[in-house]
Amino acid sequence: MTSSGISSARPLRIGILGAAGIAPAAIIRPARRRTDVVISAVASRSADAAADYAALHGIETAYGSYAELLADPSIDLVYNALPPSGHAPMTIAALESGKHVLCEKPFALNAGEARRMRDTADATGRRLFEAFHDRYHPLSLEIDAIVASGIIGDVVSLAADFSGSNPFDPLSIRHDPAVGGGALMDLGCYPVHWVRALTGEEPRVTSATATVNPMGADLSVDASLVFPSGITAQVTTSMIEGTPLNSSLDIVGTRGTVHVDNMVFPSRGHSITTVVGGLGTPLTVRGGDTYDHQLAAIVDGLNSGTPLLTEGEDSVQNMALIDAIYAAAGFDRSFR
Are residues 104 and 156 in the same domain? Predict the structure, then answer.
């Protein structure tokens, strides 16, 4: 047995909560590229939907309720692919049933839920990871290394953006505030995480503005932050129709700058450009799909007991900053 209670003699068995469109890229295909992981079950509120999904993706067991999957003693880890409103209740239930959990981002509807999720993981001795897959790609580690090297001097300011067109649809969960929709929750949680991870500090929100859809969810957000060290940051996100796809990070130091293109899916093409003394140095980093790196980190973390980059207090603080940005932009999220 490993430190996680999982036998190293058999594959890690994963159950998926929700017949979700993201799951094939996020967990099903990465698992198939390994010999030590198997997707053993999927659950939906509809038995027919679960059965169809299982047949389509070659999953051995389909459950017509989430409770049935959580009661399956053979499952080691649950991938929670439900809408954000289902993250806290079902993650807590999964942890209490003895499963480890990989929970999709955004982690919860608010920081209060996130704390309850973290506390339950601590109380049960199970591991709870947030699915910021990009953080496990070598690109993220290279950015950390460039800043740590001091080549651009001390960091002065950051600008982080993740935006892309997602036309308003009242039937889409991404536009429904009641289930955790909104640009900041769906896309902006990434740049929020980038600036926190890079500085290793928790910032204060100095101002924030937003545009709102007819249902009350944000279509775009622009937030200004200041960190205890004095570093400032601008975090932007938009899913307004026609917005070009962009996930970029700009770092300004006292001696130079760094610009990074395609932070979220670097395996599809990315670049890092460091400029010092007026001379630009472009760079790319070798690596696979971000989801493969994430799954590898989880398997290694469960086997070794080593804490990962996207678990514990990190998830709580990311939601706390999202809450603070919404508050500064004038959102009433008391219904959450």
Answer: no
